[in-house]
């Protein structure tokens, strides 16, 4: 029994492998095999669409494979079954052509509606510009509720993960010391909840892709092009992602961390960032050398 149990777990782990990469950046739960429902209205809509199509496929599979099993058992040669002599049946051909078309249309209509909603960035209360570099991200909060913010910073792999990953470091990551190894950054992107946020995504060198599974979408960052996306995060929390486009030797070392906070806390964050920027500007101005009098 123990050997059988181990064998079952081994088979299940193999079945889980294709999903592991999809869920790795989304804080997966143990033995999570399904798509994450996410924390935004669009991710919830995508998850509902996924489950609808999944159950349609399950029903089709049960009917098709059930019919095959029944045919193999009841109409096998050893029971004296004789093959039919007719070449075709017009009624059957019409049925198995029309029904799949209706099923595909029934799936295409909600899928198309969802795709159109993904492209609708109108009425956004905030705009964030994301620029991909080898191998980091630059975030610029261009405006919030109609007011420019001037908040701009670069987000890189956190120093501890970067130190451990170096060749010859002699260290191995552990859940105790680095629970989010290669998934932490030195500066998080802080965003407000219950706010429609528009993203403009581009790159400075090669093609990257900004992907946070909990938000429900991935957007390519292409040099010379501006792609758009939007989100409305419903739950405060920390959501992790990664670059999802092979972009060079350090592609695996440019994670994404989004911290979603209530709007009041986000406004305090903006005020603190603005004050720190202004203080740094004043300090730099006072430290400028005084030109000598000629």
Report on the structure:
- It is a single chain.
- The chain is of the alpha+beta class.
- The chain has five helices and ten strands.
- It has helices spanning 2-23, 41-74, 90-118, 159-165, 263-286, and strands spanning 126-133, 136-144, 147-155, 189-192, 197-203, 208-212, 217-221, 227-231, 237-243, 255-261.
- It has a five-stranded mixed sheet. A five-stranded mixed sheet has the order 4-10-9-6-7, covered by helices on one side.
- β2 (136-144) and β3 (147-155) form a beta hairpin.
- α2 runs antiparallel to α3.
- The longest helix has 34 residues, at 41-74.
- The protein is elongated.
- Mean pLDDT is 86; it is low at 1-25.
How is this structure best summarized?
The protein is α+β, with helices and mostly antiparallel strands. It has helices spanning 2-23, 41-74, 90-118, 159-165, 263-286, and strands at residues 126-133, 136-144, 147-155, 189-192, 197-203, 208-212, 217-221, 227-231, 237-243, 255-261. A 5-stranded mixed sheet has the order 3-2-1-5-8. A 5-stranded mixed sheet has the order 4-10-9-6-7, with helices on one face.
As a percent range, the share of helical residues equals 25-40%
Low-confidence stretches: 1-25
Beta-strand percentage range: 15-25%
Q: What is the global morphology?
A: elongated
Q: Please list the strands of the largest sheet in the order they lie side by side.
A: 3-2-1-5-8
Distance between the termini: 94 Å
- State the total count of DSSP E strands: 10
SSE order, one letter for each helix or strand: HHHEEEHEEEEEEEH
Mean pLDDT: 86
Which structural class best describes the helix and strand composition?
alpha+beta
Determine Rg (CA atoms, Å). Answer: 27 Å
Largest sheet: 5 strands, mixed
